[in-house]
Amino acid sequence: MGVEGCTKCIKYLLFAFNFIFWLAGGIILGVALWLRHDSQTTNILYLQLGDKQAPNTFYVGIYILIAVGAVMMFVGFLGCYGAIQESQCLLGTFFTCLVILFACEVAAGIWGFVNKDQIAKDVKQFYDQAFQQALMAESGTSNGKAVVKTFHETLNCCGPDNVAGAVAPLWKDELCSEKDITLKNIIEPSNCHKKIDELFSGKLYLIGIAAIVVAVIMIFEMILSMVLCCGIRNSSVY
Length: 238
Hints:
The protein is mainly alpha-helical. The protein has a single domain (6-236), classed as Cd81 Antigen, Extracellular Domain, Chain: A, CATH 1.10.1450. It contains 9 helices and 2 strands; from the N terminus they run ααββααααααα. It has helices at residues 6-37, 39-45, 57-85, 88-135, 144-155, 163-167, 172-175, 183-187, 192-237; strands at 48-49, 52-53. It has a two-stranded antiparallel sheet.
């Protein structure tokens, strides 16, 4: 015997929420894949300075997002099917998966908040090391100039975050492209430290908005799934 009345409304409401949840999982998966293959991040984070690889902390977070998006799509499908079939077993499994996924999202959010400044800091340190090697012209032992030029061309910046480096004319013709040496940049230098901060803070902002929206949907789904599960149990008694 199927559910009736308010419980039936909750059934279709849960189905609708799960469909949105499934779509959100697809969006997060798509955004994560876009961030993974975005030209700005790939050009910078695939760089190698001698034997040292660019910091990959950002990519760790991206791989977590890819996994979360795929799991969300699976859990969303499970919730839709469980709601339509009015299966207590599937709804119970769905609720358990939601709790685990919610806990993982909270843990990932804490990890991201703790490491949000460290990601940019590590990349800036990597840039500074390459910049120092480029100034010392260690072309025979490292690829510092190539690394610095990639930063400058990708981020449209020129020089590190210090006044002495920003106004020194000796290295600009060699390390900065012509589009970076504009009148605006001479008056107000567009240093690479600032551009690196903007790059990662902008992407983390997008991730944070998506995570908050998904967390709200998950809370509603957990409540609705329990109410529907109780309604199915009560309707089977009669």
